[in-house]
Amino acid sequence: MASVWAKSFSNLTVLPVFLLLLLCLPPGGGQKKKENLLSEKVDQMMEWSSRRSVVRMNGDKFRRFVKAPPRNYSVIVMFTALQPQRQCSVCRQANEEYQVLANSWRYSSAFSNKLFFTVVDYDEGADVFQQLNMNSAPTFMHFPAKGKPKRADTFDLQRIGFASEQLAKWIADRTGCSGTTYTDIHSHTIRVFRPPNYSGTIALALLVSLVGGLLYLRRNNLEFIYNKTGWAMAALCVVFAMTSGQMWNHIRGPPYAHKNPQNGQVSYIHGSSQAQFVAESHIILLLNAAITMGMVLLNEAATSKGDVGKRRIICLVGLGLVVFFFSFLLSIFRSKYHGYPYSFLIK
Questions:
Q1: What own/partner pairs with CB < 8 Å and gap ≥ 24 does 122-129 have?
Q2: Which of 22-31, 66-75, 145-154, 198-207 is least confident?
Q3: pTM above 0.85, yes or no
Q4: According to the UniProt entry, where is the signal peptide (predicted)?
Q5: Rounded CA gap, 71 and 317, in Å?
Q6: Please, what is the average pLDDT of the chain?
Q7: Residue 29: band (very low, low, confident or very high) from pLDDT cuts 50, 70, 90
């Protein structure tokens, strides 16, 4: 009986010691596995980035390298539809700007494994679009290294445009930095470098050559320089360009139009008063030109001394231009400024 009690006492003594040893041992197995998995993901992303500045992803790659933990790097994803059958001209334009930004980051001295640029095409990752309830393209999203994306991690393309500089500022904001240069969470900086574009210089040289040649050919008769009608037309062209928003387009770089990938419907007028499409500015320019033409005809009918019947026809044509196209212009204004109460002819 004594031996049995001694054996039981020995077992009770060994058991707490064994449990204490288990608690003291570091949980190295699971942590080591997590570190190895993270290292493999980072190495794979770096390998892909060394080949292309923008990593193409399908549904499986997106879920593994962007959504699934562990991950200590941020990912910028452009969701797009670049296949020709999609007929998304805006996607191609946005992709060009995105490539410029990704190349600027890839070939800068500050390049690191803490930020990657990727793209998911609808035809290669339709399941990703469905998973994120995404029904338009292009769309830019930031997936932070920690936590889930917030509302501000989706780039406001309709309001800001998709110029590389605007994208860089947005990325800087989302990674907790500021300024005109991109700065990631490790204080690495990158500036947007665009490839040389001599189209503006060539166009200016051609314009100067054209004007110089015209002046040379008419060197013996330069009275046309003092032509008031010519200068008036040139001034109107400048006014039309400025009032239609061409300068805003040049600064913000908005898309020409927007095509809904779900139903294929193309929108030429932006629904918000804070943004516009390039096609919209062209429409406004033509409307303003038509209204101006109507006013010119009304003035001509009132001041000329020609045949009364002809003047009456000119007056009616001018009045029709002003009334119809001003109504059209007012209807566009109402569609952008929701709640505006007034309309004329066209609603």
A1: 122/79, 122/80, 122/81, 122/83, 122/86, 122/261, 123/81, 123/83, 123/86, 124/56, 124/57, 124/58, 124/59, 125/57, 125/58, 125/59, 125/62, 126/59, 127/59, 128/59, 128/62, 128/63, 128/79, 129/79
A2: 22-31
A3: no
A4: 1-30
A5: 68
A6: 80
A7: low
